[in-house]
Amino acid sequence: MAQRHQLRLQINNDLASLDIELKALASQLQPIEPDCSLGDLLRSEMMHDQEVLNGAYIEAKKRYNSLLYAQRHLDDKKYGLCLDCDEPIAFERMLLMPESRYCVRCAKENNL
Ligand SMILES: [Zn+2]
Question: What is the distance between the alpha carbons of residues 66 and 9, in angstroms, rounded to a whole number?
């Protein structure tokens, strides 16, 4: 099926760019030494930056894992069907988020 092929390429692309993003984030994530001679203000700024980076890292990692899951299940009959209502998920949505497991309506209803 041509659409599935397109989704496979999309997943591979997304995984490749997330991989680069994760590596870049990981290289910036460093514990701040408790006794480093920075002023308190700079220190708290740095800690805030680390928290933001850490949040971004966790989000990217989550999406990475969801995409890996989608990649493994791409050939399943159930792939592309909403887990909630069993209706096919719109292809535009699948292209944008190949890891989607709910259609737009169910995602909205369940706040996903
Ligand atoms: Zn649904």
Answer: 15
Convert the pLDDT of each residue in 19-30 to its tens digit: 999 999 999 987
Gap from CA of 39 to ligand 1 centroid (Å): 53
Using DSSP, state whether 39 is helix, strand or coil.
coil
* Domain of residue 18, CATH code: 1.20.120.910
81 CA from centroid of ligand 1 (Å): 8
Q: Are 82 and 103 in contact (CB under 8 A)?
A: yes
Amino acid (one-letter) located at 78: K
Q: What's the structural domain count of the chain? A: 1
For residue 30, what are the domain limits? 2-109
pTM (predicted TM-score) = 0.84
